[in-house]
Amino acid sequence: MNTPPAKMTHSFIYLQYLRGVAAMMVVYFHSVVQLRNFGIDKPLLPMIGESGVDLFFVLSGFLMWITTSGKEVSPGSFMLKRLMRIVPLYWMLTLTAGAAALLAPSLLKHTLFEVTHFVSSLMFFPAPNPSYLDPSEAGLLLTPILVPGWTLNYEMFFYVVFACALLFPQRLRLPLVAGTFVVLAIARVTLSSDAMALQFYGNPIVFEFVMGMGVAMLVKRRTLIDARWAGIMTLVALAVMLLANLADLVVSRAIAFGIPAAFVVYGLCCLEIRGALRNFKYLRIVGDASYSLYLTHVFTLVVCRLIFQHVYKADSLATELAFVALCLALSVTGGVITYYVYEKPTSGLLNKIKTRAAVPADVHS
């Protein structure tokens, strides 16, 4: 199982594929949720796919460790790089959602504009969403105006904790991050339930980032398993995650989804490093555009709903399949277009500005 440590030269293409799959899982889940807007209280299609978010969290922990391990990375440069990656697209779409809530509130269902909540959304801070004040919707209370952005609130918090850990020797970083999350989880249980930020940041879901870091440590040390067993483990773990989603198990999400997600990431890394690599061009494109796909699909689903409500007749499996297929096709198309038209050019421009700012003035004199 173990092989000697070696310099990591892999680009982890399989993980890029996984990002695309995870994004499409979330789109599928929200597409099935949209069926309720047609009066279908109990869709025939299975309610699975929300665990794509847990794959993203494990992947995030993995990538933050892999990209900083063995390097001198300052907290400031780390956070700047993360902000350049996350902020431009998220702010643009948050402003769009805010404008839609003010000008056309009927288009985005469950989207209301409130100044404090809107500013908190831009700052990646959890605040009560005025659209979800009903006790039956408590799970959505601390979502931003662009609802899928709740995951970015966790991502940004993880980045801050991880950036602080970069001040310490590498051997201490994982224990420090994990220890911070343990303290918050304990405080969440023992202290006042009225502290909404504590209820949010103390959610055990944050341990999925730690799982990703742990997987990265194993991969970095070349602690790998045979490709055949890695393939079997990956498929089994993915099946367990989806079945747990379908069964709606009353256990911690970090256990039901996070642990299988960690096995999926580890298995794919083993497959790639062991040489079992296959090229899936279009899935790579979706993986590259996964961030755009994840954030824009809420707008695309509105378009799908408006289109479909004119042709919807009666509930049937064929009807549901047609609607979900439309949602997936248009969401992927919209995400890819957004990536190439806005996300990628903006990222390139910011990197150029950063590079020029880092060059000493006398170089240009």
Q: How is this structure best described in words?
A:
The chain has 365 residues and is mainly alpha-helical. The protein has one domain. The protein contains 13 helices and no strands. Helix 3 packs antiparallel against helix 5 and helix 6 packs antiparallel against helix 8. The longest helix has 42 residues. The N and C termini lie far apart (56 Å). The N terminus and C terminus are likely disordered.
Furnish the topology, listing elements before pairings:
Blueprint: H1 13-34, H2 52-68, H3 75-103, H4 115-122, H5 150-165, H6 170-190, H7 196-201, H8 207-220, H9 227-247, H10 253-273, H11 281-288, H12 290-308, H13 317-358
Shape: globular
Task: Name the helicity range.
Answer: 55-70%
- The computed structural class is mainly alpha
Radius of gyration: 21 Å
Termini gap:
56 Å
Mean pLDDT across every amino acid position: 89
| Main sheet summary | none
Stretches where pLDDT falls below 50 for ≥5 residues?
1-9, 361-365
Order of helices and strands: HHHHHHHHHHHHH
Number of DSSP E strands: 0
What portion of the residues fall into strands of 2 or more residues? under 5%
Whole-number count of domains? 1
Number of helices: 13
Summarize the structure.
By secondary structure, this protein is an all-alpha fold. The protein has 13 helices and no strands. Helix 1 packs antiparallel against helix 10 (253-273), helix 1 (13-34) packs parallel to helix 12 and helix 3 runs antiparallel to helix 5 (150-165).
